[in-house]
């Protein structure tokens, strides 16, 4: 059984089909990139996978549970327990320090543990910035705090919507390296990106256009050099 | 770290690190609480003060004899109809015409200690007579006779029946006395000479005769009326009546003042609530993103409510504490400036003020918090 399976997903706003009959399977431990032009439905899809939104039609199976049918309350619980979210606009709580922002995820998940939160910050190379407020951190550092927050509860799946969209090359590399680490530890990653360089380090990339999945590439030399060997039209 | 600690850390961080935002709410709560606790202090304390103040204008009940004069026994009987804890003072008066330097003046025999209680507005230069042979001289008489404290005077009394019968000794109706004090009241008392009842009885040779008793009774006008009616009906020889003008204005002013205080209290409460609700609504609006984020990373609606309520309650408690202190100062100032006396500190008012502030803030936060739970994380996080 796949960790995540989207079956005939539609998201319809008025007469706009933001998602139009999308089918997708994601295996446990897989690293998937989602690409597509602006307005193609990438964020819409991520929101549905992330239990923040429901499809107009179709099934979303996460661990075999159809999250499209769950109540808002259960969705909150699933999101809290299974999903780590990273956003393009490094969303942090402005009046909480880096470490408090990380602990916030622990707080909602189980119990805050300062030591563990500090370890997570250490993993993203920010142990020395733990007591800084977001306004005292650079964009790249803020995004790394978001990564630390996303991974703190050992989620089954990390969803990142354009995590490097606002980062320079150096910070982009740090974040991508972190994804490598997380992936090697067995975390499932789904990353939305505009940036081919970020997309092509994943094992697989799917392409969205006008709400439809129209192409999929598989990076067969995933562990080795980053290079596309196979292009499949679907 | 446990969840509660993290919760406290979050809400205090929110208030402290966003203080420029919260200061308006804090100030409105503090000012509201200050005015409320100040007004309550005045509401409770002023009737006490006003009572004291109005009693300064003299006794509020008078016993008069129904047939010429009565005795101290009659007064005692009358007094027994009044709850003893309500009695501030009972002063008997007996008036006789005497002569000083051969000029006729009115002398009043009284009980000096009681007179201090029923006529607290008397201003005495020197001292009250403390025993036999001393007089309290009305200021205008003192001026007329050019007498001051410590001066010697001779007081003559002409008995009503001046011609003694054959073989009878003539009464000693002259006493040498000392001026103990000069009485200033700005009223008719300044034309009297006050001496102790014992001296007057000795001077006149007639005892047990009282013309009038003034009473100061600490009771509301209904109760006073009841006392007076009871006494007039049940004590033969005594007619009790109220000094109407003082008691009525006292209660009328009090009722008006309390109504005013109540009205202001309600208005201030409403204004505070509106101000806090407005601030909290603004706070929720500007924090939609944060609320969405919290929800996205797993906060339930209950969690969001708890956090905002927690902030509201903390804000209310802080505002209430500041307000309780300011309120006391405010009430104290009003009391000193208006009633020229300091108010009594009511310790219970501090926790009450804080509790009321917390409750008012909590209620004002309800609507804004409700809208906070309706934030959709997907929409908020999507972009701008
Ligand atoms: N709440 C909404 N109501 C109406 N239309 C919406 C709503 N959310 C998204 N859309 C529309 O759905 C389409 C897909 O939006 P989505 O945000 O998924 O695009 P995207 O692929 O993430 O684009 P971008 O790369 O710019 O972030 C867009 O045309 C958008 O206007
Ligand atoms: Mg998007």
Separation of termini of chain A? 22 Å
How would you describe the shape of chain B?
elongated
Query: What pattern of helices and strands is seen along the backbone of chain A?
Result: EEEHEEHEHHHEHEHEEE
Overall helicity of chain B: 55-70%
The amount of beta strand of chain B, in percent, is 15-25%
Number of domains of chain A: 1
The largest inter-chain interface, given as chain pair and residues per side, is:
A-B, 33 and 30 residues
CATH architecture of chain A: 3-Layer(aba) Sandwich
> Which structural class fits the helix and strand makeup of chain B?
alpha+beta
Taken from the alpha-carbon principal axes, the silhouette of chain A is globular
- Main beta-sheet annotation of chain B: 6 strands, mixed, barrel
Low-confidence stretches of chain B: none
End-to-end Cα distance of chain B, whole Å, is 35 Å
Going by CATH, the homologous superfamily of chain A would be P-loop containing nucleotide triphosphate hydrolases
Q: Strand portion of chain A, in percent? A: 25-35%
User: CATH first level of chain A: which class?
Assistant: Alpha Beta
Describe the structure.
The complex is a heterodimer of chains A (234) and B (384). With 234 residues, chain A is α/β, with parallel strands linked by helices. Chain A has a single domain (29-54, 70-233), classed as 3-Layer(aba) Sandwich (Rossmann fold). Helix content of chain A is 32%, strand content 28%. Chain A contains seven helices and eleven strands. Chain A has helices spanning 42-49, 72-82, 98-109, 114-123, 139-151, 169-184, 196-199; strands at residues 4-13, 16-26, 31-35, 57-62, 65-66, 83-86, 157-161, 188-192, 204-209, 212-218, 230-233. Chain A has a seven-stranded mixed β-sheet, with helices on both faces. In chain A, helix 3 (98-109) runs parallel beside helix 5. The two termini of chain A are 22 Å apart. The relative contact order of chain A is 0.18. The model of chain A is unreliable at 224-233 (pLDDT under 50). Chain B has 384 residues and is of the alpha+beta class. Chain B folds into two domains: 3-53 and 252-381, no CATH class; 60-242, no CATH class. Chain B has twelve helices and ten strands. In chain B, strands 2-3-8-5-7-6 form a six-stranded mixed barrel, surrounded by four helices. In chain B, strand 2 (87-100) and strand 3 form a beta hairpin. In chain B, helix 1 (3-17) crosses helix 10 (301-339) and helix 10 (301-339) runs antiparallel to helix 11. Chain B is elongated and about 125 Å long. Classes of the chains: A alpha/beta (234), B alpha+beta (384). The A-B interface holds A 43, 47, 50, 52-53, 73, 76-77, 79-81, 85, 87, 89, 91-96, 100, 103-105, 107-109, 111-114, 133, 149 and B 1-3, 5-7, 9-10, 13-14, 17-18, 289-290, 293-301, 303, 376-378, 381-383. Magnesium ion is lined by residues 42-43, 161 of chain A.
């Amino acid at each position: 059984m796949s960790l995540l399976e989207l079956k005939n997903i539609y998201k319809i706003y008025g007469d706009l089909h933001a998602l139009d009959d999308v089918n997708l399977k994601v295996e446990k431990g897989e690293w998937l990139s989602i690409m597509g032009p602006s307005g193609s439905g990438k964020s819409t899809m991520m929101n549905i996978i992330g239990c923040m939104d429901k499809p107009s039609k179709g099934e979303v199976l996460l661990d075999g549970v159809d999250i499209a049918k769950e109540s808002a309350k259960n969705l909150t619980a699933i999101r809290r327990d299974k999903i780590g979210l990273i956003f393009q606009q490094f969303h942090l709580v402005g009046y909480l320090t880096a470490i408090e922002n990380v602990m916030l995820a622990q707080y909602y998940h189980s119990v805050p543990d300062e030591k563990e939160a500090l370890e997570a910050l250490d993993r993203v190379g920010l142990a020395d910035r733990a007591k800084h407020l977001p306004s005292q951190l650079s964009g790249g550092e803020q995004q790394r705090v978001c990564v630390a927050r996303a991974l703190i509860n050992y989620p089954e799946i990390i969803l990142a919507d354009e995590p490097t969209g606002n980062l320079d090359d150096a910070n982009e590399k740090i974040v991508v390296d972190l994804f490598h680490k997380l992936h090697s530890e067995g975390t499932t990653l789904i990353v939305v990106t505009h940036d081919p360089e970020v997309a092509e380090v994943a094992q697989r990339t799917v392409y969205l256009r006008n709400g439809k999945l129209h192409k999929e590439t598989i990076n067969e030399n995933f562990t080795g050099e980053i290079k596309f060997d196979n292009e499949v039209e679907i | 770290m446990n969840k509660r600690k993290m919760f406290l850390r979050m809400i205090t961080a929110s208030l402290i690190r966003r203080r420029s935002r919260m200061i308006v709410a804090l100030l409105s709560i503090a000012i509201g609480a200050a005015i409320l606790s100040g007004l309550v202090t005045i509401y409770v304390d002023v009737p006490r003060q006003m009572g004291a103040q109005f009693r300064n204008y003299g006794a509020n009940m008078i016993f008069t004899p129904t047939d010429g004069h009565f005795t101290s026994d009659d007064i005692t009987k009358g007094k027994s109809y009044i709850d003893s804890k309500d009695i501030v003072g009972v002063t008997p008066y007996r008036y006789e015409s005497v002569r000083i330097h051969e000029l006729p003046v009115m002398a009043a025999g009284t009980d000096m200690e009681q007179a201090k209680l029923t006529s607290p507005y008397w201003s005495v230069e020197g001292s009250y007579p403390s025993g036999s042979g001393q007089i309290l001289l009305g200021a205008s008489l003192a001026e007329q006779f050019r007498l001051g404290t410590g001066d010697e005077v001779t007081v003559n009394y002409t008995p009503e029946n001046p011609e003694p019968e054959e073989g009878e000794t003539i009464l000693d109706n002259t006493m040498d006395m000392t001026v103990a004090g000069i009485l200033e009241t700005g009223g008719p008392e300044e034309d009297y000479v006050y001496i102790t009842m014992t001296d007057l009885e000795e001077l006149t040779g007639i005892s047990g005769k009282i013309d009038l008793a003034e009473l100061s009774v600490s009771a509301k006008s209904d109760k006073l009326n009841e006392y007076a009616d009871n006494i007039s009906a049940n004590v033969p020889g005594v007619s009790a009546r109220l000094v109407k003008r003082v008691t009525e204005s006292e209660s009328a002013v009090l009722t008006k003042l309390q109504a005013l205080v109540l009205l202001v209290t309600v208005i201030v409460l409403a204004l505070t609530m509106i101000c806090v609700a407005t601030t909290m609504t603004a706070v929720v609006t500007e924090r939609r993103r944060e609320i969405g984020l919290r929800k996205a990373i797993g906060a339930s609606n209950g969690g969001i409510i708890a956090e905002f309520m927690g902030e509201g309650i903390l804000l209310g408690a802080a505002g209430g504490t500041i307000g309780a202190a300011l309120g006391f100062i405010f009430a104290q100032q009003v009391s000193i400036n208006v009633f020229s006396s300091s108010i009594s500190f009511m310790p219970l008012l501090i926790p009450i003020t804080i509790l009321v502030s917390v409750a008012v803030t909590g209620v004002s936060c309800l609507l804004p918090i409700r809208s906070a739970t309706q934030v959709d994380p997907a929409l908020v996080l999507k972009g701008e």
